[in-house]
């Protein structure tokens, strides 16, 4: 019911025996405890939001680094040593952002964008040269 009490009755049709069970809450939160929890939630909301953004940025960065390494391994013969060095430099910059004591999601996002930009330019050039060699 509205007070958190549950009444259950069961009857065995064969024997006609009946059992009743009553379940009620042994405690709960007082209004003061609820208000305290709400104040704490509001107080830490900004920090929680920032922690979430940092966590998401870290996940994206780790994914970008993994994809970059996989692409380099897969297309090693197509990419010059100089271009590999460019990609490696951008990847190291991203790794430095991840290792920073004061991680800022914006800085990680910028480093991810820089890595993807370098990676795109390098692989675009590699594909163009490969297609020219085929012709």
Keywords:
single chain; 135 residues; 10% strand; 3 helices; mainly alpha
Low-confidence stretches are none
What form results from the Cα inertia axes?
elongated
Order of secondary-structure elements? EEHHH
Give the C-alpha Rg: 30 Å
What does this structure look like?
By secondary structure, this protein is mostly helical. It has 3 helices and 2 strands. It has helices at residues 31-74, 81-99, 105-134, and strands at residues 5-11, 18-24. Strands 1-2 form a two-stranded antiparallel sheet. The protein is elongated. The model has no long low-confidence stretch (mean pLDDT 89).
Brief rundown of the structure:
The protein is built from three helices and two strands.
Break the fold down into its secondary structure elements and pairings.
Elements: E1 5-11, E2 18-24, H1 31-74, H2 81-99, H3 105-134
Antiparallel strand pairs: 1-2
Helix pairs in contact: 1-2, 1-3, 2-3
